[in-house]
Amino acid sequence: MHFQWYPGHMTKAKRMMQENMKLIDLVIELVDARIPLSSRNPDIDELGKHKARLILLNKADLADDKWNDAWAEYFRSKGFSVVKVNSKKGGGMKSIHGVIQEACREKIERDRKRGILNRPVRAMVVGIPNVGKSTFINSLAGKSCTKTGNKPGVTKGKQWIRLNRQVELLDTPGILWPKFEDQQVGQKLAFIGSIKDDILQTEELGAQLIRFLLDNYPGVLESKYTIEEDNDVYVTLSRIAESRHCLVRGSELDTEKAALLLLDDFRNGKMGRLTLEYPPEV
Ligand SMILES: Nc1nc2c(ncn2[C@@H]2O[C@H](COP(=O)(O)OP(=O)(O)OP(=O)(O)O)[C@@H](O)[C@H]2O)c(=O)[nH]1
Ligand SMILES: [Mg+2]
Questions:
Q1: Which listed residue, of 174, 213, 236, 243, carries a Cα 20 to 30 Å from 252's Cα?
Q2: Does the C-beta of 155 come closer than 6 Å to ligand 1?
């Protein structure tokens, strides 16, 4: 299965981000706490060079907190400011304003020396599709300013949001990159829902997720679906279909439907807090 998804609107979005970079003081990059490396677009480092950088480990509520802390430590060791957040529920938001001011201290100092007072910090919010950029902005703003949705490609154009006199945020469309060097990266992005489902084969992706869970989190499927896990992923998928009464024509097992249900449960954190990759040093 091919995971590559780089439609025209992403090329356009990248150009827009390049053009707007000159207006920007700070790049706020959201990564998915379940796959903090695989969810980093390598193009962002190039786009955001010479800018202050802040990494948000978003959807921290869906990842194992022990690993969230390890990942935060990892990114700090690489020189980034890091905050772990749950944009949906507002967790971690309180510290953000302070962290933004701190990350832009040099710029604020420079402005002051030039006699420019109270020019707001302008931050571009970037990240892969569906990582939670718009939800984060709404949560920080305390109101719904931008459209959100649990599928990739919701935000299509840029939008400036003035938070207060100190900060203005630019919401951007989620972008991927033209070629995944490692297909495992594409697979993980598909698991979390950052790749448009239309280009994926649901049943095959579900089977791949089962393989991953059996290898890394044995017992999770067993307790979620009250089934016996079988090392043959398609046997396990059939058991999920059976247990959840996914049937076609009233009698045959509908494994496609079961795969969809499995992916949904996984994406929504219904299997508990699962981290899918670990910091390189560990
Ligand atoms: N559990 C959980 N869900 C979140 C969190 N942040 C966002 N979401 C959900 O993730 C989905 C995507 O959120 P959006 O804010 O639309 O994502 P986006 O990055 O703006 O996506 P695009 O505009 O498509 O690039 C929504 O269903 C949100 O409710 C979080 O911290 N935890
Ligand atoms: Mg969005």
A1: 213
A2: yes
